[in-house]
Amino acid sequence: MKYGNEGMDCKKYFLLFLQKAWFAALAAIVGAALGGGIYLFHHVVLNSNREYRAESKIYLDFAPDESGEIYQAYNGYTWNDLMATKPILDGTMAYLPEGYTEEEVILATRAEILSDLRLLTITVTTSSPERTMEILKATDLSLVELGKQAKEFNDIQIYRETEAELVAADPRLLQAGLVGFVLALAAALLAMALHYVLDDKIYVPGDLKCVTGLPFVGFCLEGAGDGRKVSSDMTNEGSGQGKDAEKATDSREHRLLENLQRDLEKNRAYLAGKTGTLTMFALEKNQTITAQTYEELRKADGVLLAVPYGKMDRTTLGYRIEQLTLQECKLAGILIQNADMRLLKWYYNHL
Length: 351
Known about the structure:
The chain is of the alpha/beta class. Helix content is 53%, strand content 17%. It is built from 13 helices and nine strands. It has helices spanning 10-19, 21-45, 69-73, 79-82, 86-95, 102-108, 129-149, 171-198, 225-239, 243-275, 291-299, 314-326, 341-347, and strands at 52-62, 109-113, 119-126, 153-161, 165-166, 216-220, 278-282, 302-308, 331-337. The strands form two sheets. Strands 1, 2, 3, 4 and 5 form a five-stranded antiparallel beta sheet that branches. The chain has a four-stranded parallel beta sheet with strand order 6-9-8-7, with helices on both faces. β2 (109-113) and β3 (119-126) form a beta hairpin.
């Protein structure tokens, strides 16, 4: 509970998250590919789960009907139910050899009107190409027989029958990909959220408050040139304003850089005038401070601690400060070194 009442710097976490948003996007893409791949492996590669599909086009020649009741009775919503009724199903079973059940035929058959009311599409899907073709042909013949017997039709003809083909891509493949996409994206977002909430590294001055009471002197921006270039590229991509936007972005970043450097110099000059000559000491995560180093720091009028941006955690920093205080080093202030200009530009957007 050391940091329990500290609160969260939501702006900092949001900016850090944006810098790694590509990770969430990449995880979602990988998840979609993995979901689709698992589905294909299960339903295509494994022989026991393979499915074969064939299709036929049936032309319906309706008898004259001024009332329109026939068209309402045989519309696109009812044909799939009609395939399981006694007149059609009995005919289908009569044309099939032994070994088939009505439940198998009903589950394998789908009938639909795609556009024209006179054109019926029959789709049969089973685990065997032979059974698929036998059910399709028997169903088509049953419909032809229905056209001869039912008064609602003048005739029913078979326009086309396709051969049974292995089903590789169907709506379930898209569903599997979407499931993988959503699960991977949710897992990546949760992992990133936990990472940033538990992350206690030093990024901005607010991260120092709960560790030390030393005054924050400023940002030491040596080596931030690459960060400024990347930030300019990101802004140009998002704005699309061309050279004018690039000049405006460079101007804002240059002004921010000048302000931060000016504040740093003013604060260092003030502390130097107050304490004397200042010595900058760079802290590192796994460094070993020797007795000779402590002796040199004790001789200094004041010590400025330089914390590397995004590399030093609060626990280690607190330990280092305790050791330096115990060694009677005169700690005058603390600064953040090699900060990322991309984050600072958006974090201090009005500076």
